[in-house]
Amino acid sequence: MKTLSIGGVKEKIVERTDFPPAKLRKILGKETVAVIGYGVQGRGQSHNMRDNGVKVIVGVRKNGPSWKLAKKDGLKPGKTLFDIPEAVRRGTVVQYLLSDAGQKDQWPVIRDNLQEGSALYFSHGFSVTYSDITGVIAPDNVDVILVAPKGSGTTVRRLFLEGRGINSSFAIDQDFTGRARERCIALGIAIGSGFLFETTFKKEVYSDLTGERGVLMGAIYGLWLAQYEVLREKGHSPSEAFNETVEEATQSLYPLIAENGMDWMYANCSTTAQRGALDWYKRFKKCSKPVFKQLYGKVADGSETRRVLRVNSKEDYRESLEAELKEVRESEMWRIGKEVRKLRPENQSKPKAKKKKAKKKPAKKKAAKKTSAKASAKKKPAKKKAAKKRSRK
User: Which of the residues 45, 84, 137, 219 could staple to 214 if both were Cys, CB 3.0 to 4.6 A apart?
Assistant: First the structure.
């Protein structure tokens, strides 16, 4: 366990090495983890836990798309795959990984089937923090814990298979059994976390919602789109505008930031690029910080939560979402992006090597060989006879 001290704040960080396999088995060996929901997080976390030796069952709506996907992944109805009420009753840990709107909708089913001493596990502080809106208020006789991977469930699984690990936050909201903390951290390692930092449910959801709407997804796309449109308006080709906006960022510069920080990325660019970046980042900060303050305020007062639940609870939600994503996908910026990605060497199909056809030997040559063989066979006895005649002389 490491202690970080930055900006006058001391943080204890739990590392994977603090919870080796033997320790995980000791803490989780008698647990049955019921994963409720089989979306990107439910699927990724459940596979990682199973690979780490944890007993996992999945609870979803019977015969729905997630049920069919779970069966395709090898889960067996009545053994490792159940409807939601039955999975909750069987679980000693209930990982509540439905969408935020789904959690609000299914909460009465979860609440009424929780067993005393179970751990109610979340990967987002949303439902608990905004309980006045969601109605999610846990009973007093269960542990309430959180492990929030800082990435998509797809990334959680991918990094695990690569032998790496996602960074995650963890929190304990209620400790009924006296084991909530060790359960929480052990589960955090079991789902594939490389390290965990402690937070609270409220801080997790405030920072998460701000980040998703900000630099992680919303703001970054807004910035990319604004720059792309200006370059196009000034006569630059689609491929040039995309390369200078997105491709260079994701393929060249962002990996350098991930590797060793922003100053490292600057240090590995030209002096012209360095000067421009250092001169202009303060102007972008000045114009964007008021927007981030407004965003954080809407997260904190519940405005964003109410909008999420209102929009995502509509019957035509999936159709409306697909229409919005289609608009993004079919915009010029991402159509040229698709073509540019195809040009990456690793995405180009390698030409298949032509198989050399074996040359058939002409039939005449075979006949000639046979003839010569016969002729030599006839000549050999004659030589022997001549030799006998010489010996007689």
Answer: 219
